[in-house]
Recover the amino acids of this structure.
């Protein structure tokens, strides 16, 4: 009797293994095939400590983004113009791969990487149609920080 039971369970075991190639708790996700996005908006936020670039489609949905920390820079190197160039190249490379070939640029902040980020976006193959500065300027609102004396 015990021999018969073993024979019945043996063929069922390989079938169960092939049916579940994914580990428990994991799900298999289908790869998204996105539509080509020909035009969009590049948001550049350049502070005294960091530079962040987000590239969005015309409706505002973010396609790609990058920052100096994500690009591998740490500390004071994040605030350099070279870091801003690398950040913009990284974000623009993904946008070009998704079909973008023109965008308008909206800059915010007064950091070192403002102009170099725009040049890097142009060098990546994206035509810049418009450049807008959206830095918030107070109409004599809050008291400014104390000036640094060196």
């Amino acid at each position: 009797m015990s021999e018969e039971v073993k024979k019945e369970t043996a063929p069922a075991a390989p079938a169960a293994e092939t049916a579940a190639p994914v580990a428990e708790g994991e799900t298999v996700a289908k790869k998204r095939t996105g539509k080509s996005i020909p035009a969009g908006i590049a948001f550049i936020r350049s502070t005294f400590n960091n530079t962040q670039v987000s590239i969005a489609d015309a409706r505002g949905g973010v396609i790609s983004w990058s920052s100096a920390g994500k690009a591998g820079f740490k500390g004071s190197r994040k605030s350099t113009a070279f870091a801003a160039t690398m950040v913009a190249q990284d974000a623009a490379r993904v946008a070009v791969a998704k079909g973008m070939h023109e965008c308008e640029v909206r800059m915010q902040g007064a950091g070192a990487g403002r102009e170099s980020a725009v040049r890097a976006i142009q060098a990546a193959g994206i035509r810049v149609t418009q450049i807008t500065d959206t830095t918030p300027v107070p109409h004599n609102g809050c008291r400014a920080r104390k000036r640094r004396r060196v």
